[in-house]
Amino acid sequence: MTSLKLNTNVVWQFQKINKRHRSQSLNQKARCIWLTGLSGSGKSTLAQALEIALHERGHHVYVLDGDNVRHGLNSDLGFSNADRVENIRRIAEVAHLMVDAGLIVIVAFISPFRQDREIARHLFDSGEFLEVFVDASLTLCESRDVKGLYGKARRGEIEEFTGISSPYEPPENPDVHIDSSNPIENCIDEVLVKLNLFGLR
Questions:
Q1: Does domain 19-137+168-198 have CATH number 3.40.225.10?
Q2: Where residue 18 falls among pLDDT bands split at 50, 70, 90?
Q3: What dihedral do alpha carbons 140, 144, 148, 153 form, nearest 10°?
């Protein structure tokens, strides 16, 4: 098998139409809203509700959901620590491209490691990246587990499951700290308030 190597002959192609132009044409400031938390914490639920709320306010928004992306772009990755790192690296690059296109992108990934989330943050300009910690106790997450994944993990049927046999490193200083046991409307309002402070329009 031929190993992949970095291509040193690739040169960045600068474009005359840039992120500022594209954001202006969409009448919004591009943002990456990065939702992190345990499986079952409510990331996908919040992402979908937030997408609706922003869409209804006239924003151009798109959700990148961890499970959905693993069906396509990241279908070749497993759940080892190395694969988790690559999973987040790829999605951070995709989110960066979408922000460059002038969009508001909502990323809903467990993204268990602080270093990976910080690497993602540094792809973006100041104020473009909003880290949202969707906080829920392990007990609450397990009670919401309609897929039975936690049960399988506790029985040893799933290896390296975050929160059980693989660590989750919660954000130490997230931009927004959501208690996902609260009503979804309250959670959305917390994010929208912070976005207004960032100057969404």
A1: no
A2: confident
A3: -20
User: Domain-by-domain residue ranges, the chain?
Assistant: 19-137+168-198
Closest CA to 109 of 37, 163, 169, 180: 37
Among 44, 111, 166, 180, the active-site one is 111
181 is catalytic: no
108 alpha carbon, distance to own chain's centre: 4
pLDDT tens-digit readout, 77-127:
888 888 888 989 999 999 999 999 999 999 999 999 999 999 999 999 998
Neighbours of 20 (CB within 10 A): 11
Report pTM: 0.88
